[in-house]
Amino acid sequence: MSNKVLISPSILSADFAALGQAVRDIDAAGADMIHIDVMDGHYVPNLTIGPDVVKALRPHSDKPFDVHLMISPTELLVPLFVAAGADYITVHPDAGPHLHRTLQSIRAAGVKAGIVLNPGAPVEQVDPVIDLCDQIMIMSVNPGYGGQSFIPSQLEKIAAVRAKIDAHVARGGQDILLQVDGGVNPVTAKACIAAGATSLVAGSAVFKGAGTYAENIAALRGDTANSKAA
Ligand SMILES: O=C(CO)[C@H](O)[C@H](O)COP(=O)(O)O
Ligand SMILES: [Co+2]
């Protein structure tokens, strides 16, 4: 795997009246993936994007669509996001009803599967399903809204999951992206990377940061030569 950290800008912070343009712009600015936050007004107290919007955005970029499902129950809607063009589907273990089966069904559909640990969730949630994960995401804010502040206690969890992934790979298991989502800016990004993250989600820091989208993305990678936002 490349040492370069992947940047997955969250379109939650984009202009919802111009999402296609936003996806084209972050693609051109060097995003590695496009993070799409799906909220149902039930698992989290906010409503956002459904499968028809994901399908409508699909022609606007060839980059992987990184779909973060904050919906409960999860299982019934997974096929709709697969059909809409998701490349990664990441689910919350407590959204239910059957985490193991949900991850199996995502992978059986040819899509990469991930789990998300909320700030209050124990790191042990990873253990029973690590074989089925292509991505593990640590939420560094409580899910539901963009623009919140990074919760520093999650750095310890990032490091603990890094150790679990490294041990898993050493046993011959598949490599797994370690993603962080929430309150990621150039300062917190540095701490996340030091703790072992390999993929960073950022909404506010990309769409509302100090520089151009390309400069904001470069700043998250720690590439200060190409950034005005660091
Ligand atoms: O999943 C999310 C919220 O539930 C978002 O991906 C996340 O909050 C990104 O926004 P920001 O970078 O502004 O914190
Ligand atoms: Co998200």
UniProtKB/TrEMBL annotation:
Pathway: Carbohydrate degradation
Recorded catalytic activity of this chain's protein: D-ribulose 5-phosphate = D-xylulose 5-phosphate
An annotated Gene Ontology molecular function: metal ion binding
Co-factor note (free text): Binds 1 divalent metal cation per subunit.
EC number(s) per entry: 5.1.3.1
Protein residues bound to a divalent metal cation: H35, D37, H68, D181
Record's keyword terms, sorted: Carbohydrate metabolism, Cobalt, Isomerase, Manganese, Metal-binding, Zinc
Name by which UniProt lists this protein: Ribulose-phosphate 3-epimerase
Gene that this sequence comes from: rpe
